[in-house]
Amino acid sequence: METMELTAKELLFVAAQLGAENFFGLPDPFFGMDEDEIGRELCSIQLTLVEKGHASIGFDSAFDLLPAAAELVSICSGCDRCILTDLLFRGDAQKSLRFYLCGERAAQLIVGGEQLTLCQIDPAEIAKRICEAMDWHEQEESGAEENRLLSFLVLSEAQRMAQRDPERAAALLRQEGCSDRMVKILLEGFQKKADYHTVSVADLQDRSLDHLVCIRAAAGSVRISPLYDEAESWKISSFGVQGLQTALHSFCEIKSRAEGGVEKQ
User: Fold this and answer.
1) pLDDT of 178-195, one tens digit each?
2) pTM listed for this prediction
3) Angle at the Cα of 56 (from 52 to 62), degrees rounded to 5?
4) Contact 160, 191 (CB under 8 A)
5) What's the rounded Cα separation, in Å, for the pair 253 and 245?
6) Which residues have a Cβ under 8 Å from the Cβ of 92 and sit 6 or more positions away?
């Protein structure tokens, strides 16, 4: 089975049947319900899963998931890594993408209203799908490549001041060596006047969490990523479409067989 249509409650129920104690990237749809309400809901969920062809109920009332449904959901319930992407576009339009990797298998969870779509995908497609959702190809990049290292304190202070005192925020960034072009891009991102996208990778094996922020403004694009050094530095780099694709492949640790793989930087 390559695709399933489920509600959030159905998906979490199936994941729990497979032994999952947590489900990343999805709010708990049972939150606020008492035990009696949950019990009634679980009975209804079992019936709808049977109706959808994802499970069966025997003569002894034993509930059994079909192997194909269990295999697909197991990519999420037993995932090694979870990739969550929150895309904020100018005008406050938003998109959220969720990907799960389990060994050599990958799945994407598409949220659209009450029904969710879970589909199995090629792991090498994840970075491409994120890039396409960002719709980055429409912008022509210009200007020289630029790289800067800023401490977390400086970056967070500039972000805090961007709304109420943008001139002070700009002066602080220039003092740290940022060009006028980079300052403009960062301020527009902090002020939500530019596309502001966040990609987070939770590695459940080593219990780590990593982030990549991409800002696309009229003046160009930058990506922001933590270095995890003693100074708590963040690297800010300007880049174009190809740079975004390379960064996403590397960040998500996706090795594309067609391209021969991308080394993690």
Assistant:
1) 999 999 999 999 998 999
2) 0.81
3) 140
4) no
5) 12
6) 192
